[in-house]
Amino acid sequence: MHPIKTLLESRRHGKKTGIYSACTASPEVIFAVCEAAKESNTLALVEATANQVNQFGGYTGMRPADYAAFVKEIAKEAGLPLDRLVLGGDHLGPLTWQNLPEVEAMANARELIAQYVAAGFTKIHIDTSMRLADDDKNARLSDAVIARRGAELAAVAEAAFVKLTEQNPNAVHPIYCIGSEVPIPGGAQEHEGISVTSPADFKASVQAFYDAFEAAGVLSAWPYVTGVVVQPGVEFGDDNVDEYNREAAKELTKALAEFPSMVFEGHSTDYQTKYKLKELVEDGVAILKVGPGLTFALREGYFALEHIEQALLPQYPALTPSCYAETLDRVMVEDPGNWAKYYHGTKAEQDFKRKYSFSDRCRYYFPQEEVKKAAERLLSNLEAMRIPLSLLSQYMPIQYIRVREGKLPLTPRALLLDRVKHCIEDYLFAVTD
Question: How far is Cα 197 from Cα 182, in angstroms, rounded to an integer?
């Protein structure tokens, strides 16, 4: 049985277990996720989104097989056994080709999902919730259309798995997440009021997908449909968080009892408190997606380390300043494509948001060569310095306590990764019964 399905099966016996999914291509974050899984004896679920990784390379330049090899190598470096690593594909569908008519967009989506399954990704989020070029822009995309396209992709995934088993008879059958009320990847562009998915809409979506699977001749895949993406009432903006309100979601979560083999998958759970995350899992949102929250923590770690570097540089005149925050912002200004439509307001407001927005569009620029070199110089400089505990207390107080307690070495990389792991701890708290 799929390890996630085994984990979630325990919910039938009264356990309130779940799993969190780290949607990221950041090597530092992936390492932190794998190391935290090793230390807590849990699964590491790492997901790539369709615009990050696809057959054309995505914005990371990686195809599905490249990303799989990339994550596995990091897992080995972190000491995590590969049987405790699960690879997932997020928003797999025509997401990146919405400007194309259905025939072309879905042809690309079929190839996308085939490559993910062939590369060994075993958690597949099928997302066909977006309008395509020849869809009516003034009408809501119907559940029937979304489900029909989703079933088409499920059929491709099933065929790709059969082909995979010819090479690897021990391959694990993928599980699927479906749904029609799917938040856009990367967070909302404008913060507006959000509504909890109604029980009627949830049930109608599941029924539409079941009917579409049957019509497409892939009802044999239905037992592998494990998660349904809904909106439980969580979202975040530039500097605000819509916290989970279990009272507002109670009718939706009660409706899940009619589908004992399924759980909810919650997107945009970033920045919820650990207690709200726990409530989500208890109420059936047993798959928690987090992405920007992890790279936001990584950015915080880099900025804090640069403050330490700047305070110490006068004592080390031979070292060249890293100028990390300045370099990151300059690169973003020179190439605004990944943030301009998200960050609105005056120039001063946009300047602030590029650095500190919860939506964390910074993450798209971490792989750029100039930013990577600035990060390497920052860590190299700090390795050549003696970091005083007093300064660590000022800029990284949580890591200061862990260093003092002997739980964390006083090295720049360990401090940086621990800032991310501190965020991960909230998710581990939430998903563990």
Answer: 10
The answer to whether 354 and 332 are in contact (CB under 8 A) is: yes
Contact 227, 265 (CB under 8 A): yes
Residue 229: closest CA among 262, 184, 180, 290: 180
Sign of the CA dihedral 142, 146, 149, 155?
negative
CA 54 to chain centre: 16
Element (H, E) at 210: helix 199-215
Q: Is the pTM of this model over 0.90?
A: yes
Give the CA distances from residue 254 to residues 179, 202, 310, in Å, rounded to whole numbers and listed in that order. 17, 11, 53
pLDDT in tens, 146-172: 999 999 999 999 999 999 999 999 999
Say how far apart CA 247 and CA 134 lie, in whole Å: 40
Q: Measured between alpha carbons, how far is 181 from 410 in angstroms, rounded to an integer? A: 45
**Domains defined for the chain, CATH in brackets:** 3-290 (3.20.20.70), 295-417 (1.10.400.20)
User: Could you report the per-residue pLDDT of 266-298, keeping only the tens digit for each?
Assistant: 999 999 999 999 999 999 999 999 999 999 999
